[in-house]
Amino acid sequence: MNDMRILERDVDTKEVKIAAKNVQVYYGDVRIVKPEDVAKAVEDKRLTHAIKNVNVEIEDKTVTAFIGPSGCGKSTFLRCINRMNDTIDVCRVVGDIRIDGEDIYDPQVDPVQLRAKVGMVFQKPNPFPKSIYDNVAYGPRIHGLAKNKAELDDIVEQSLRKGALWEEVKDRLQSPGTGLSGGQQQRLCIARAVATEPEVLLMDEPCSALDPIATAQVEQLIDQLSKNYSVVIVTHSMQQAARVSQKTAFFHLGDLVEYGETGQIFTKPEDPRTESYITGRIG
Amino acid sequence: MSDASIQATPEQPKTTSLLVADPHTQKRKTAEKRFQAYGLAGIFAGIFFLIVLLIAILSSGTGAFTQTFINVPVYLDPAKLDKKGNRDINDLKKVSTFGYNPLVQNALFQIVQDAGVETPFEKTKDMKALISASAAAQIRDVVLNNPDLIGETVDFRILASSRVDGYLKGRVHREDLARDKNIDAEHLDIVDALLPSGVVRKSFNLGFITGADASESRAEQAGLGVSMLGSLFMMFVVLVLALPIGVAASIYLEEFAPKNRITDLIEVNISNLAAVPSIVFGILGLAVFIQFMHLPQSAPLVGGLVLTLMTLPTIIISTRASLKSVPPSIRDAALGVGASKMQAVFHHVLPLAAPGILTGTIIGLAQALGETAPLLLIGMVGFIASNAPDGLASGLLDPNSAMPAQIYEWAKRADPAYYERAWGGIIVLLVFLVSMNTIAVLLRRRFERRW
After folding, report:
1. Do B331 and A87 touch (CB under 8 A)?
2. Residue B39 domain-assigned (yes or no)
3. pTM for this one?
4. Which of A33, A159, B155, B237 shows the smallest number of beta carbons within 10 Å?
5. Which domain holds residue B244?
């Protein structure tokens, strides 16, 4: 894929997978009882308003890229989508995020079940210090996706194929996952994430620790995965966003500044801040 | 800055030679050298004292592992041991050790005469000072176990008295005998005469490791075995209680508990508890387990409970440290594929933290093994002469002592023979501690994973 072609890329109208409305994220060790106290706490600098009123609709079977300068809240917002922010004590999420119309912050929703549906790949490759096989098989095992060893073997193989890693590791499935190279580890993590058959795949700067060759492999992989999943990728590299995504959202200081077709964002941005960032004046 | 000012002061950079150290560098270098010298001096002082300690312990304590024995053929006289002649065990039991004493003394007197040793002693009773008071009991036990031996002459290896033992080990000197009521120079002459033939001989003393404590006057008989059992029972209690409770508490605090004032307070207090003097735990154990719960005094169960309380903070602190050292990315990875918090902890975090937890537990156990002060307060410093208990349950509830308490007890006693045994006990204790620490290091090496 190549930057010149981004304008010609056609985008189908697809159904909305994730709909976020008025999402606010606050960081701070403050107990808040009444909603009106929040503004005061933010004013007193006891709370940090990390995400301000984000509204976004992410489509199914599409790659959506979140771009923006460091600390703009794109990773924080990504982590809201599978409620990984729940593991951070001082993080508070307000607003409404729906996947297929279901509110994921509903008290009845078990974040564990949600995370099986919304897989995640992290910035730093983080394979378990176990064998390659066990790394991929862990998710299917705890969710009971395989009835027997043969089925599990099959899931592992399919996942590793989806992760474009099968050919490289098929002869050493029992060797430790931590012994692979950085790019292979990241692809192993992607294989691990797709093994649980998620509907959405969140990727938090998946290529930041990789060299250009491994990055190209992962990007190709993302392209393939978008046939089945809704992929949301956070990236620092605008070229990468332009290469892999169909939709792009630009975040700045906690605001979602602009969201639209990737081609449009990169060629005819509406907001002056987007233009400044893309042309390299801020960021 | 304006262009004008730059032109106004065309500063020439000073050129200094790299081969000559400027005063500032010189000063830094001396400071660094001085610091290194302090460090080295400290380390050498430490090594010196360690060597002194080891030499002192080994030179004073190795003697406890050998003991002087006398080999005597004793004629088990039926006229004295079995007056009715029916070999009935109940009749045999009526003859106390007083009945056996003359037999041993006769046998020794016979040997002395046969060897042609010139001695002013004419009565067999005069040989008493050479033989341990335990000899009669030793022979009586053999006879009661095997009454058929009566009427025969049997070779026995009996303990020499502690003075004879001390004489052979250089602890008792001839010039001190004037003040010693227990033994005379003539006795030592006999010992000297019997040495070449091997009748009196120093050899390895298994009894010191397996035996029970003995009375003040029978230092030669005292052993560490029973108190070792007491220590083992206590370690068993500590391991069974402290490891699961400590690990569960740390997992909860580290992984599940909300971070608020209450958990902060608990954390601070756990650290404080680790620094509480052990005697405080002793008096707590006395008040709660013995006076309130009426558990038996001097029992290893109570000792184990007290040591559990003492060890828990150590285990909790080290377990939490090793849980903390597991990178958070592993937790994220597990949660990211949809593991529950508990699955993330038990499948991924705990196995990675296990070597640290094991090491901490073993260090905690080693600390508990060497602890004396709390045991004094719950009465585990008693005189326990009974041998191995009847079973696990009674072993936990019967009065017992512990190795460090036994050593303390021996160190208190007047007879210098006990002084040697106290050092010997220290050697055994150190062997235990060093091997436990070695196991800790090996486990850590073996299971430590890199990521």
Report:
1. yes
2. no
3. 0.81
4. A33
5. 225-447
